[in-house]
Amino acid sequence: MNLVTIIWSMIASACLTLAAINFLTWGRNREAWANLFFAMLATGTAAWTFCELWMMRAETPAEFATALKWGHVAVWLLLVSLVGFVRLYLKAGRPWLAWMFLGLRTLALVLNFVVGQNLNYSEITRLRHIRFLGESVQIAEGVRNPWMVVGQLSLLALVIFVGDATATAWRRGDRRTALTVGGSALFFSVVGFGQSLLVLWGIIQVPLTASLSFMGLVAVMGYELSSEMIRATQLSRDLQVSQAGLRENEQRMSLAVDAANLGIWIRDITKNEIWASDKWRELFSFTPSEPLDFERILRRLHPDDREVFEQVLTKALAGGGNYETEFRLALPDGGLRWISSHGQVEFDATGQPLRIRGASRDVTAHKQSEQETQLLRREVAHVARVTMMGQLASALAHEINQPLGAILRNAEAAELFMQDASPDLDEIRAIVADIRKDDQRAGAVIDRMRGLLKRQPLNTRELDVSELVGDVRALVRADAAARQVKLEVHVPGDLPPVRGDRVHLQQVLLNVILNGMDALDGTSGTENRISVIVSRNGNQTVEIAVSDTGSGIPADKLAHIFDPFFTTKPNGMGMGLPISRTIIEAHGGRFWAENNASGGATFRFTLPIAEEVAAK
Amino acid sequence: MSVTAPVVQIVDDDWSFLTATSRLLRASGFAVKTFSSASEFLAQRDTDAPGCVVADLQMPGMNGLDLQSALGRSRNPVPILFLTGHGDIPSSVVAMRSGAEDFLEKRAPKEKLLDAVRRALARDAHEREERTRQRELRARFDMLTKREFEVLAHVVQGRLNKQIAGDLGIHERTVKLHRTAITTKLGVQSVAELTRLTDEAGIFTASAQTFPKGQ
User: Which of A593, A595, B119, B206 has the most CB atoms within 10 Å of its CB?
Assistant: First the structure.
């Protein structure tokens, strides 16, 4: 054995092994084209190596020529797969250059078989023995084939193609890949073919050793493929870790969602699709397989709450982003369920809403206890008010009984004095003067009481009536729901601000609405409704009308409802309307009541439009 | 003993009501005196004069109930009649238990007020007569000697002279002499009358029950 045989055999067998491995890899994964090209590259290299060894050991010129001829097949395979590999790996290279190369090279291969002994020699005249790496090998001498230029042109095309692809990849930023794949392809091609050309033109007297360069190519490409594999493994491990993390997160999330009894949903606005968790479907009373759409869901909402819900949603979609709201569901079985819903809108780059994600929660129990608390609070407030009024009334009675008692006794005494035959007129005059004085005293007591009741000064400012109505609506909404009263509000959009004391006016409106609800309590009408209608009344005032669908005010009581202590309620004090009227009149407005033609009563009051606006 | 006409004494811190009430009572034929506070009344009133008190229940300083108890402890506890701005049940209960003649609202009908005043005056007259009689009886009993008292105690229990003599360790004749002195001093004719008078004066009421009668 000698070095040449050992080295060339080792190169060939190494290349064949690599080729076999990569063919198998490609066989298992047909999309691994890089592996296929690599396998072809290695196969071509192995075949060429074999041909080189054959040439070095040729016995006759004809044998040398045959070895070189078949060597061109190996070179074709090797170069074509190199182009494929480079194109695939660098994801660069002009296709027309590749096709041109392929054309030229294939032409060269054809010429190799049809013109002369092979592409390089028209005829090999003789073989010469030289010593190479301590062994005697053959080199050829003969007439060079002029068609060899086609092969050289194809090599030029190859170098241009690879150089261009490398430059593109480099510019793109894939510098490492450009350097290893493109750079080494360029380097080993130039070195390998350069040496071959020098040999074939007879400039240097050595055997062809292009297989060393091709081996270098195979080694670099093989290394590149392996590191690709390592990266892939790393990636898949990372993926596994992150997937495990994802699963963990998902589990945590579902634990939280279950614990909070949350129903989760996602609405894709562009596709108009809605996905919802099983819990959500249970809350909204949909079966797990029932198709969902927005209209269908909206119909589940209590009719009174739809409008408010749509307003909230529109605001969020218009750019608000997040929303939080509460509404009632009218369930198919006739039940009622309070839902607290929280949503987040996701927008695209242009600000168009893409999807909404949300969570819904059953707050019925919470609402009920809230309503109970509210009821309790109202009762406590009422008791406190009654107690206070009771004390006030008691003090009032005592203070007033004193002068009234004196007036009575004086009058009785006067009657007796006048029964005398000659009445003492001086005495009677004194009595009359005292009666007058005591009457004034009683009047002063009443004035003082009235002063006590309206002692708080008005704190007036510009007020938005729709806000005022909205505030009170929010205050009574739960109450109205509990008493099954439908509350309607109509406020025109272009209403000017009024001048008034927010807290006092809230009290008045609240009082009137609650009175309306009290009036509805006794009736068994099919639809209990209270409407608050705000309208502009000329240039000076805004009118607020609160109508109920109760039984109205009996005609004989209509004239007295604003009298203090006049009440039709078993535990009323009869102070609500008089105080309300006092407040409205202090604002410069009017307050009156009337019965509706269609039943029920309407309470109306006016408020002055803020001067700055009224002046316009 | 005074023979002056009974006076209705009105106590009220409200001048106007005080004047008006006094006018009505005067016009109705009563003698009237007015006081603007309980302490003024207690300081200035005639401690012997007959009559009654008409007082406001709620007054600053000494109120009606305080006045009632002060009056009850005095030598001349005339009946009291309360007036009030408005019915106050706890106070009225206290007042009535302590023997108030009546408890009226300030705006009560005139007849109710006048009737109550008349009743109070009648009660005062009766109680006053009773008190006078008691005082006279006490004066008569005060004339008896110590020994005569001892004998009287036995007599009202219905014991015979002989028994009394034995019990007291004296002669039966002496007992007879004592009895004669007692009947003379007290101005009675019979043992029955003597017993009634003793009862009325409230003498021996405690010991009387320890001895069964008719023994």
Answer: A593
What ipTM did this prediction achieve? Answer: 0.74
Give, to the nearest 10 degrees, the angle between helix A210-259 and helix A3-28.
Answer: 30
Q: Which of A397, A403, A413 sits opposite B16 (nearest CB)?
A: A403
Mutate to test the interface with A, among B23, B83, B110, B114 (most CBs of A within 10 A): B23
Q: Hey, what CATH topology would domain B143-208 get?
A: Arc Repressor Mutant, subunit A (1.10.10)
Which position has the token pair 């606006």?
Answer: A613
Find the radius of gyration of the CA atoms of chain B. 24
Using alpha carbons, select from A342, A333, A162, A199 the residue that is nearest to residue A265: A342
Contact B20 A406 (CB under 8 A): yes
Looking at chain A, the whole-number percentage of residues with pLDDT higher than 70 is 92
Rounded to an integer, what distance in angstroms lies between the CA atom of residue B165 and that of residue B171? 6
Alpha carbon distance A417, B158 (integer Å): 63
Which pair of structure tokens corresponds to residue B26? 């005067």
Name which of A100, A215, A226 is nearest A159 in CA terms: A100
Choose the closest CB to A401 out of B20, B26, B106: B106
Q: Is the pLDDT of residue B210 over 50?
A: no
Of A307, A308, A284, A305, the C-alpha closest to A296 is A284
Instruction: Read off the tokens for A96.
Output: 């027309």
- Nearest-by-CA chain A residue for B16: A406
Q: Do B23 and A438 touch (CB under 8 A)?
A: no
Tokens of A471: 């505030």
Domains of chain A are: 3-234 (1.20.1070), 259-362 (3.30.450.20), 368-453 (1.20.120), 461-614 (3.30.565.10)
- Whole-number Å distance between alpha carbons of B11 and B17: 10
Whether residue A317 contacts residue A307, with contact meaning beta carbons closer than 8 Å, is answered with: no
Task: Identify which has the larger pLDDT, A43 or B72.
Answer: A43
More confident residue, A491 or B207: A491
Most confident of A132-141, A430-439, B159-168: A430-439
In chain B, what are the domain boundaries? 7-137, 143-208
What are the pLDDT digits (tens) for A198-213? 888 888 888 888 888 8
> B7-137: which CATH topology?
Rossmann fold (3.40.50)
A-chain residue closest to B56, CA distance: A402
Residue B22 Cα, gap to closest chain A Cα (Å): 9
The single-letter code of the amino acid at A504 is H
Q: CB of B107 within 8 A of CB of A401?
A: yes
Of B23, B85, B107, the CB nearest to A410: B23
Whether the pTM exceeds 0.90: the reply is no
**Mutant choice from B8, B14, B17, B111 vs A, greatest count of A C-beta within 10 A:** B17
Chain A positions contacting chain B at CB under 8 Å are 394, 397-399, 401-410, 412-414, 416-417, 427, 431, 434, 437-438, 441
Within 8 A by CB and 6+ apart from A287, the residues are: A281
For residue A394, the model assigns a pLDDT of: 66
> How far is the alpha carbon of B47 from chain A, nearest alpha carbon, in Å?
28
